[in-house]
Amino acid sequence: MTPKIENYLRRNRPVTPCLVVDLDVVANNYHRLREALPAADIFYAVKANPANAIISTLVKLGSSFDTASWPEIERCLQLGADPAKIAYGSTVKKVSDIASAYKSGVRLYALDSQPELDKVAEHAPGSKVFCRILLKNEGALWPLGEKFGCAVEYAIEIMTNAKKQGLVPHGISFHVGSQQVDLKQWDIAIGQAAMVFTALRERGI
Question: Which of 64, 55, 109, 111 is nearest to 86 (CA)?
């Protein structure tokens, strides 16, 4: 609770349950993360809260965006986001949505299977792709390990095929689970991602 939110609630007294967000807190959190990770591009997960005011604030700050659907991409673009700073982060996408995203200038796509790779290669040629690896999510209060992702060995093959199919193997992603309380899980995930990078380097990627 911030003074701004307290004043807002006092003045407006909303009669139904609602969510009130202080945009100054959003901006401050972005700046803090940017200072802590100066070499990283910060991607805001739009599905966390797709409110126009939040997205517009982050656009002005130069944030990148992780999107899970074409409507999310469309909203970011309408609010001024640079398509070069948008990742289509869902590993399951409709062909029509891939085509729409590509036509709009989005060039970064997630995947975790060969069929998804085939779709991206056909409808978003030459794009960058990143493969999501599967984790057990031990220690997470809300495990997401079985929802998306593939085994390390499969990720190596997918990224190898991505290059063969005219795409740019760009990176590896993972999700340690929501509300993760075991910090060792990050070490495990980063170690597995490193295994993929090492194997691909040996293959000239």
Answer: 64
